Amino acid sequence: MTALNLIAEQPDFVVLDKPAGVSVHSEDGAGVVAQLSALRDEPLWLVHRLDRDTSGALLLARNREAAAALGTLFAARQVTKFYLGISTRRPQKKTGLITGDMQRSRDGNWRLAREQTRPALTSFVSAAAGDGLRAVLMRPWTGRTHQLRVAMKALGAPLLGDSRYGGAASDRLHLHAWALSFVWQGTARCFQAPLPDAGAFRHPVMCAQAAAWWPPEQIVMPAPSPAQLARIGADQEDC
């Protein structure tokens, strides 16, 4: 069974520091939701998702009422999320807004198209991460499958360990769900998943840059216009 560490425990929900390489669902074995439910001997409800290879903050409801309310917050985009990524290549620009429709390519992967019918939107800023690597702080405004991985590829800087989208080889995907915040029962809540003690996340320069970026809400990066936000539609996935 995978070691599972909690970031926070509240009456209505828990926040798990999801390990990389484990699915949230039970696919070829028990997923993290089933594992944690068994460990705690209580049912837990998944209200958003992370890719199998993405680590970091995962919110799980402890009752049906909370699951419905939290799901509504995600659907209304009232949950702010920040991710950290690492690439071996420098993005085409230091900061910006990545926007475009997500389309399936012939090989089954996703790609970022020029069309803006229902665009995926990601704000980002990058900095040095040590040893020629680049750290990227990303704020997704939408939650499409593989959104951040495809956005990094579109910037010419696929994530380290992301062989599916052209990233350099590594023992793990260097994408981490770092923070999420929302208002719950009238109180602002913010939860941080510690940097993974693995791969290039351990580099002292990367650790220092993450500290300089905290809290991520204070980092200035381009945001979507009201017109762009009006076109994005509903999401059912997460990054």
Automatic annotation (TrEMBL):
**Pseudouridine synthase RsuA/RluA-like domain span:** 12-153
State which residue ranges cross the membrane: none
Q: Name one GO molecular function term.
A: catalytic activity, acting on RNA
Question: Pfam family example for this protein?
Answer: PseudoU_synth_2
Top-rank taxon: Bacteria
Please give the InterPro entries that the UniProt record associates with this protein: PsdUridine_synth_cat_dom_sf, PsdUridine_synth_RluA-like_CS, PsdUridine_synth_RsuA/RluA, RluA_PseudoU_synthase
Record's signal peptide: none
CDD domains registered for this protein in UniProt: PseudoU_synth_RluA_like
One GO biological process term is:
enzyme-directed rRNA pseudouridine synthesis
> PANTHER family, alphabetically?
MITOCHONDRIAL RNA PSEUDOURIDINE SYNTHASE, RNA PSEUDOURIDYLATE SYNTHASE DOMAIN-CONTAINING PROTEIN 1
- Family per record: Belongs to the pseudouridine synthase RluA family.
What's the name of the protein?
A: RNA pseudouridine synthase
Organism for this UniProt entry:
Isoalcanivorax pacificus W11-5
